[in-house]
Amino acid sequence: MYNTLQYFHGLCTRFDDKLSVWGGSALSLALRLFVGWQFFKAGLVKIADWQSTLSLFREEYMVPIIPPELAAWMGAGGELVLPVLLVLGIFSRPAALALFAVNLMAVVSYPQLFELECPAAVNSHFYWGILLLVLVSFGPGKLSLDAWLHADKQNK
């Protein structure tokens, strides 16, 4: 009985290592693409009508400490540059952590998110934050420039 159990356990787990590495890498790529696209779209909206963006940062968003114009530039810049790094998988962990900060600042500076009838707005920020922390914790996986550069460094 024990040998039979060991045999079936071996059959069921013989691909676990490859699945962990490549399945995790594929999932990480999917997360990078999904979250990166969400932020990149927001950046495109900001630069499409810069005067409206500046107006929102002056009148609606309550970004602490920094002037609204600087906050608008930093927000748009972060939403356009960091997702590209994330999707390519280069400087992935710092990019994910910086996007987490952008996401957190968006929630903190726009308290109306919590007053909306539809909780989807604040929930989206919550989910994006969790996904970004997953990427910070587990990294971009093998399907990234970070992994390629690391492998290249190991071969020298």
Description:
The protein is mostly helical and 156 residues long. Helix content is 79%, strand content 0%. The longest helix has 33 residues. The chain is elongated, with a radius of gyration of 20 Å. The protein starts with a helix and ends with a helix.
Helix amount, in percent?
A: over 70%
Q: Which structural class should the secondary elements be placed in? A: mainly alpha
Low-confidence residue ranges: none
Specify the biggest β-sheet.
Answer: none
The count of β-strands is 0
Oligomer: single chain
Cα-atom radius of gyration: 20 Å
Secondary-structure element string: HHHHHHH
Count of DSSP-assigned helices:
7
How is the topology of this model organized?
Blueprint: H1 2-13, H2 16-48, H3 50-59, H4 68-88, H5 92-109, H6 120-138, H7 145-155
Helix pairs in contact: 2-4, 2-6, 3-4, 4-5, 5-6
What structural keywords apply?
single chain, 156 residues, mainly alpha
Overview in brief:
By secondary structure, the chain is mainly alpha-helical.
